[in-house]
């Protein structure tokens, strides 16, 4: 149980359209991440699924039943909020129990569920404390616990890790993944952090300005971005984009003249004379001279130990290269870049 | 001791006395006397017997003329120190007074009447607190009833004020609906319509509702205070909306969200409003004076003013009742003064 | 958020238990209401009691007050009253000379207007002066400032009736004031039987009762002025008097304006403590507008609600002008920005 379907969902606040015609189907047990820059409508979409906001038009179905007019309380969903939204005047135990008491569940059943969730999340030790006495990470666990005890049809998580420090975020991410594996429940997770999206998701939904740009598995999105926006958004550091013009287009082989004059041979492109944008990931560029290599001037070298991040100027276009290992290079030097082995994405 | 003096007279920069320092201390000490003096004088007077109250010049502390029971006389007699014709003085009891002559007897030897000019005798006095002033109104007058009416009005009005205003503040802070700004403006606009402007029609409405000569007629018009809605709403705006969303996801009804989530979190603002409301309602005068015309319904304030306006004012009772009326407010002042003053400085309301 | 110790929380639980019970009982019907009307309906439900009370006890009287002012007779309820148009207003304004209340048909009204006008002018001026001086003094580097602040604040909480009685007791023939003067060799005087002294007493007593409140607002304004401004002025060799006129007063202006308007609005409506202190007397020397309205509408032998309503509308108009003045001043102050 936990199949969610959005059909032609639209939302506008006054004259401002924040969600345009979204169609999406989320399978039972799936971990779906909504990702996109702030203001893309991902939180609004989640709040509409939750029932906290009403869609302006379109249908929202949970397990085949249209729930447009069903209030949040009756949709059987649970939500983890960005601020955790723990009730500050209640103890952790009361926070966990509140939602269950509202369903008039027997007291021993409530106690059993709280005990189980507390064990799972290792929060037994501070069940009688108030949220104000807990650390950020502990509060986050309680927030998740409050959702778990409800045994919801689906979990909705609104940027649940954004208030944690970097280290805690990493470990909690792993725990969330484990939790999903264990509960096998549908989870919808909103974040602006593509690393969280890549590591957690079964499927990622990339949103921009109220529209779905692409839906797919993390590697789908990484390997086959549907457009330049998705390509730029997924992957870290960002993909390089190089402007150019197709000079000659032959069967299986064509030549692109990059802005600045250097030329690049590619397996296939569009028509001759067309202006194109080439996308190539920093990790896929190799250092070293070859017959098709490009020459660039280094502007900045960031030595990270295991790898070296090189910022370079390719005849007026900026390019970023991540080279494994350590390299004895300095800004101002010329380097040769080979794109021979790199998967190259073409955008119009 | 000198340390305390030095602390209290500490001045900026530790320089010599500037004329502004003298003005400051004169003003402060004067203020202390003028602000507390009258109330202290009232409290002191409230312990004096009617005879002592009628004296001029008055004494600072309550004194009464000593009385003795003398053999052969039913009532206790006043004791005087009299200067006799031979120049000696004796303590005698006055039997009766005829013109300027007082007929006195020696309490130890009551057989012989001594005549003394009243200018030549001074009463023998002792300090005595006339606690009758306090106990008698409680037994003989409607005072207990007034006290109860005042307590009933204050407590009921404050409770309703808290519930009604917090509900409105909740609606105005946590819901989006058309006309919300309009409702808020309407509420604030009522600040401009004081009682003195609408008392005639308000009286007719209260009468039409059958609330004339009814304590509810005093309570109901006061319970929807714009200031109350305003401070509660300002406070509720600081409670994150996500808490409301979380409660909705937790299957809480809107009513539960109000009383299990929002109300407990608004406790500090509710406390401020409760204190103000208690002081306001306890002190209300003009409206109860209009609505209540039956003696047994008077509040303390109305009862006091009616009694003090009578032709033959029984000051000894009035003073004692005034002191009792002051007590709750003085308690509020002592324990919550800091709380109130910061509240006023912060919001500018009274 | 601190943990409560068990004793306190169990006491709290005891107090809260009946409230919880009551609120819990209400939950079932209100859930039903929520199901029937949705969340929007619940917002209306929460707003309803307040709006109802405002509507019945503030807005409705406000509007029918105009109707009252255009009717005559002694009947209480509007339908029983006869329409007289602007008759009541005409009666109020029927004067041969507005400067002489004796020449007016409704001479007590004009006496009350004249008394109130004098009261407002004198009381507001003195109140502002006294509060400002007190605030300035409390803003000095004083030991135990909060104690001194409390001293001046004390009478604010007292009920007007108590205030009136305290001073009635002090100003009477055997009172404290005469006692003090007797000590200095003066004869006792019955202050409240003297027209001028009674008038002065109403001013003095109302200042005594309320100055603490305004002092508090002004003190808050003074404390909001950054100390480094004075230090900078001192470095520039500015004399304290000049610093007061050029720094303190301009920066205090917003608070001062609020206080002036508040004092004005309250002064126009003065009633309670004066009613207890002098009852408007001797004669009509301390009869102010609110008491005139009260007596005309309720207390007089032949009460005239229409006339009282007309007078109250005139007073309301003055109050609205004063309030708008405050709003206008506040806005221009904001527009002017920081100085």
From TrEMBL, chain A:
Keyword Nucleotide-binding: yes
Alphabetical keyword list: ATP-binding, Nucleotide-binding, Transport
Chain segments annotated as transmembrane: none
A matching Pfam family: TOBE_2
Keyword Cytoplasm belongs to the record: no
A molecular-function term among this protein's GO annotations: ATP binding
Topology versus the membrane: Peripheral membrane protein
Domain of life (superkingdom): Bacteria
Domain ABC transporter: 4-234
Location of the protein in the cell: Cell inner membrane
Family classification: Belongs to the ABC transporter superfamily.
PANTHER family: MALTODEXTRIN IMPORT ATP-BINDING PROTEIN MSMX (PTHR43875), MALTOSE_MALTODEXTRIN IMPORT ATP-BINDING PROTEIN MALK (PTHR43875:SF3)
Protein's recorded name: ABC transporter ATP-binding protein
From TrEMBL, chain B:
SUPFAM superfamilies the record matches: MetI-like
TM helices/strands, residue ranges: 21-43, 146-172, 184-203, 215-236, 257-280, 315-336
Keyword ATP-binding annotated: no
Primary residence: membrane
Localisation: Cell membrane
Topology versus the membrane: Multi-pass membrane protein
Sequence ranges assigned to domain ABC transmembrane type-1 in this UniProt record: 147-336
UniProt keyword terms in alphabetical order: Cell membrane, Membrane, Transmembrane, Transmembrane helix, Transport
Entries under CDD domains matching the protein: TM_PBP2 (cd06261)
InterPro entries listed in its UniProt record: MetI-like, MetI-like_sf
One Pfam family linked to the record: BPD_transp_1
Family assignment from sequence similarity: Belongs to the binding-protein-dependent transport system permease family.
Protein name: Sn-glycerol-3-phosphate transport system permease protein UgpE
UniProt source species: Shinella yambaruensis
Automatic annotation (TrEMBL), chain C:
Keyword Chaperone belongs to the record: no
Localization per Swiss-Prot or TrEMBL: Cell membrane
Residue ranges of the TM segments: 12-33, 45-68, 117-138, 150-170, 197-222, 243-265, 307-329
Highest taxon listed in the record's lineage: Bacteria
Entry keyword set: Cell membrane, Membrane, Transmembrane, Transmembrane helix, Transport
Membrane topology: Multi-pass membrane protein
Span of domain ABC transmembrane type-1: 113-326
InterPro entries the UniProt entry points to: ABC_transporter_permease (IPR051393), MetI-like (IPR000515), MetI-like_sf (IPR035906)
One Pfam assignment: BPD_transp_1
Family per record: Belongs to the binding-protein-dependent transport system permease family.
Protein name, per record: Sugar ABC transporter permease
Record organism: Shinella yambaruensis
